[in-house]
């Protein structure tokens, strides 16, 4: 038996039939790859989602889906969730050690989420600025590292909030915000967000505004006079940017405690406070929900794992079928090569050499398919975190 | 070199019956085997080379009782001793001309491929006029060129016995002459015996001897009349 010769002949045969070899290796490779790929993607998603959830003790939000609340507050990806008021969030502060960090993640600027919060948020997430400084007044914002890098934003630039509804002329006007700093990267959703003071997001919402002085307004400019509340027509200029000159004219209409937020991070000062808070919000009639993000992720991944197992089992069956078909194709192609084997036998090749030749070709295809599957998995492992981030936010 | 005695062979399930009472070929002799179609010329070469085993009788070639060797031994004997040129060339379409010529070295552990073998392959290709086609594949060649590749493959191992089955069947007269001359030259240089089957009487000149096979009997086989085929009756 000449193993080197069989090896050489096998290689030459496969090289001269690249399409057949590629199709066989590709189909078997996919049969190996797909079930493993599901595992890699789920694992990557789990790592990404859990890392954020595990560092957030409690989340307070309006009644509704706990999952949507987590996605809004941690990944800024569900802007349309039910809102609750700042006052309701403040009510969760049982003692001075408990931190309540409001989050209003509803508006965006060209696809980047605008997150209204307080400076406490940056301390809580351990986020510093690498350029410039944190916001100092109404209308200021800081941007995430990735967003700054991708859009070339630097301190001193401006970002403009996008209107919610393009054709709603009575709706919220865009606000031009001054960028005061760029945040350090933490590899999470913060890198792609714009952070501003909570009050600035309420300006975007239209709950606060600034306009030119109307003390000497003509009667023709007044549409409605209700004593404390006067409505002017459009000839009175409303500011769409907060500047040093006009900041004094910005004012709120109403009690800030009644203004909306989408979520609040609650960091209890002690285990006891945590237990009391969880107990208090267990009562559904209280309205708002207080959730443990990691527990929500546990529930989510329990379901995801069940689905994954079903999908992997289905893919494994499909893979076995693909493998059997590929094997049949291989055997049939060997039948078509019977004349060639006959020639080799006549010249003097022994049956063991021929079997080795066939085994080598089969082994090569199998190894090529495994290598292909491994290569795809390596690529997927490198790309999965990015894909997961773009899907769930961050 | 070759001694056949009372050879009988029949393909399983077929009515063709081959019988050869006696054939002797001396060492270094060049013999042309002629006869009408269906007389068993190709079968004779396959019996001599051990590809087929007779139901009865004896075949000796190169000092070996070919039909008494086991399968592995027969294959080893064939690749070491015999250079075969088949009627249908039997080239591998995924190998270049060079690799087809060197094929015996690839499939046998009894032969080592080395620089000398490669040189010989090149020289044979030059000698048969296909030296420029060493990197081509069989489908890129004409019938005659493929025939020459098959001939080079048979000669590359310097066999002691060359068995050629209609080696000039696809060639024009000029190339026929060239190929026959080359075979005889190679046989003479290597001190080999040459047995060539042909139906073309115009190329018999120059052979030491011509053996004419008679038309073989064709009859309906009677199971009890057929001697039981030995194991591995068709190798």
Describe this structure in words.
The complex is a heterodimer of chains A (394) and B (235). With 394 residues, chain A is of the alpha+beta class. Chain A has eleven helices and 16 strands. In chain A, the strands form four sheets. In chain A, strands 1, 3, 4, 5, 6, 7, 8, 9, 15 and 16 form a ten-stranded mixed beta sheet that branches. Chain A has a two-stranded antiparallel sheet with strand order 2-14. A two-stranded antiparallel sheet of chain A has the order 10-13. In chain A, a hairpin with a 2-residue loop joins strand 3 (99-109) and strand 4. Chain A is elongated. The relative contact order of chain A is 0.20. By secondary structure, chain B is α/β, with parallel strands linked by helices. Chain B has helices at residues 41-49, 71-81, 97-101, 103-107, 115-127, 143-155, 173-190; strands spanning 2-10, 17-25, 30-34, 56-61, 64-65, 82-85, 161-165, 193-197, 209-212. In chain B, the strands form two sheets. In chain B, strands 6-7-8-3-9 form a five-stranded parallel beta sheet, with helices on both faces. In chain B, strand 1 and strand 2 form a beta hairpin. In chain B, helix 6 (143-155) runs parallel beside helix 7 (173-190). Chain B is globular and about 45 Å long. Chain B starts with a strand and ends in a 23-residue tail after the last strand. The interface between A and B is medium-sized, with 23 and 28 residues.
